[in-house]
Structures are given as C-alpha cells and as structure tokens.
Amino acid sequence: MSAWIEMISDEDADADLRAALDLARTPHGTVDNVMRVHSLRPNTMRGHVVLYRAALHDAANTLPTWLQETISSYVSLLNDCGYSLANHWKNARHLIGDDARADAIWAALEARAPERVFAGAELALMRYAEKLTLEPGRMVAADVQALKAAGLDDGAILEANQIVGYFNYVNRCLNGLGVSTAGDIVGYYAENEAE
Asked: SUPFAM superfamilies this protein is in (predicted)?
C-alpha cells in the first residue's frame, strides 16, 4: 500500500470499513490502492466503487470494451496519471489483441495525434475526450454534434462522457494523494482469462 495519507489494512478495519472493502474487492480478492485510499472515509469508497463500475463496467454499455479502456487510458495520459494509465492501458492493450495495432495506438495517443490511427466515431471520441479533459470550460454543443455526425447515438455519447468524467475525477484523486500501484495487481483482463 502506498499513498501520502494513511490507508487502513483489512486487519485493522472496523465493521463499516470491512463492508466497504468487501464491496471494493477485485476478482483476485484484493483491494487496490485506488479504493483503499478512501479507507478513512468508507462512504466515499462505496460511492467510488459504484461510480467506477457504472461508468466502465456496466453491461448496458454499447461502446466496445477495448475502446472504453483506450478512452480511459487517453484521459489518464493527458492527466499524467501513472496509476490509472498503468492499469487501463494494460487492459486496453490486451483487449485490442494485436500488439502492432496497440503499439500504433499508444504512439498516436502519446503524441496527442489520435488521427494517425483512428477515424470516424473512434477519432471523434478521442477528440471529445481530449477537449473535455484539457479544456472543459470550452465545450460547446458542436462537440456533441461532432459525435452524432460520426454515428454515435446519445446513449454512447453519455457512456463516453461518463468515462471521461470518471477518469478526470479519479486521476485527480490519485495524483493529489500520491497513490501508487505498489502492492496492487496491475490490470485484470489477461490474468482473469487464465483462471
């Protein structure tokens, strides 16, 4: 466990915190630092878990999972959040399933040039994610109209908006409290398939 504030271990948790920790457990039975950093305030941990799962892991989402993870990674890259980037790019890379394609996507995102690898709706989503992350006060109706013109419906636009909003929230929480991946298992998709 690593952060600039205290994080309470499972062994030292009271009943209320234990219940929040149980809600936040990964498929491996662990609690990642991104959630454990809330251990002094279990209610924010519960809220964070629910928000995360609703934004990124809801069965009703229609955006492909690899694209959700790539949007998450791009926002985290723009925010210089190593924690989220390590986890979500590992997931995106695995879900892309093609190392050459993943390398090309990574290089384009790192250069802030998504047009090198994306077109249509995917490119529109990356541009939307970048502007909403870096210039939220400059968003205009035309930004959403561009997504619609690229073929996205309002539900998919809402999904993208929530993913971008969530990662801007969590990146600031993690960076602001010095949370690291020390002790975490980074990424889950590849590991879960082996189980």
From this structure: AhpD-like (SSF69118)
Domain containing 94 equals 65-169
Please state, in angstroms and rounded to a whole number, the distance separating the CA atoms of residues 6 and 164: 28
The pTM (predicted TM-score) of the whole model is 0.94
Q: What is the pLDDT along the chain (195 residues), one digit of tens a residue?
A: 699 999 999 999 999 999 999 999 998 899 999 999 999 999 999 999 999 999 998 999 999 999 999 999 999 999 999 999 999 999 999 999 999 999 999 999 999 999 999 999 999 999 999 999 999 999 999 999 999 999 999 999 999 999 999 999 999 999 999 999 998 988 865 454 443
What total of structural domains would you count in the chain?
1
**What single letter denotes the amino acid at residue 72?**
S
What's the rounded Cα separation, in Å, for the pair 137 and 10? 41
48 domain residue, yes or no: no
* 50 within a domain of the structure (yes/no): no
